[in-house]
Automatic annotation (TrEMBL):
Organism of derivation: Pantoea trifolii
Gene from which the chain derives: ppiC
The protein's enzyme class: isomerase
Gene3D superfamilies given in the database record: 3.10.50.40
Name of the protein in question: peptidylprolyl isomerase
InterPro entries reported in the protein's UniProt record: PPIase_dom_sf (IPR046357), PPIase_PpiC (IPR000297), PpiC/parvulin_rotamase (IPR052204)
Domain PpiC positions: 2-91
Length: 93
């Protein structure tokens, strides 16, 4: 059976902004509020919620991070062709 996960993410163009957001999150900022305010991905409107997806559905760098980073902790920045992602994995199996 394919591995699946659910995650939130914030997508921004600049690495410096991604690092700034990560630092705010580490100090207790609300992930979904920051996603709504800053994410350039359409998922930002939903607090960065990507829903459930299978391993291999996302671009390789993002996929690798989602299936290896700690759960429930903001992780990043992860660079892809889309920009810089801060990822929070809600669950995976």
């Amino acid at each position: 059976m394919a591995k699946t996960a659910a995650a939130l993410h914030i997508l921004v163009k600049e690495e410096a902004q991604a690092k700034s957001l990560l630092s705010q999150l580490e100090k207790g900022a609300n992930f979904q509020q920051l996603a709504k305010k800053h994410s350039t991905c359409p998922s930002g409107r939903n607090g960065g919620d990507l829903g459930e997806f299978r391993k291999g559905q996302m671009v390789p760098a993002f996929d690798k991070a989602v299936f290896s980073c700690p759960l429930l902790q903001p992780y990043g920045p992860v660079k892809t062709a889309f920009g810089y992602h801060i990822i929070k994995v809600l669950w995976r199996n």
